[in-house]
Design brief:
Layout (H helix, E strand, L loop, with lengths): L2 H23 L7 H8 L3 H7 L3 H26 L3 H13 L2 H8 L9 H22 L9 H10 L3 H9 L4 H14 L6
Helix pairs in contact: 1-2, 1-4, 4-5, 4-6, 4-7, 5-10, 7-8
Amino acid sequence: MNWKEKQKYDREQLILAQAENMLFQNVDSQLNMDELALAVGISKGTLYNHFSNKDAIIARIMERNAYHFLQMMRETMINVDDSMMKLKTLIRTIIRNPYFIFVLQNKPDMTETTELVKIFEQITEELGALFTHLQEQKLLHAIYPTPFLVAYFIHLFDPAIFAHLLKEGVLEDQIVTLTERFFFQGVQKEM
């Protein structure tokens, strides 16, 4: 990478970092391009030289954070020996991961093949492998198809549900515990 390319790359990273910071501080997750240019210390025209619009910035942030989540998930798969503990660790990490929640909140268009779609395909593929392994070990019931388990698992982290529970006074640690219990034991009372 030559000096000019490095300068462009560094400026894009600065724009993305500031945009991400603004998005996480802003309750309604809106990004104002004028405010972003001012915060970064560049003109609005320079901002548009790097990104065509705010959707392009948000897409890049989502891609980067989905990739970080995928890396964290892979580290969990490598560093945690017990299969069931891998899944529990993922639950705890996802619930406490603002980036994954951010991606879900923004409900990206998953109909076109983008980098984000490819990353989510890898996430679902690796979760599927984990669920298949858990079924083979007889830790999860084999009656549930793997795609169902993956979809249901991801659905557990819907930001609207999470926000509602917090608003209703359910503490974050309780959400983690209840999510684990609900996912692993279901809601039917033992007879």
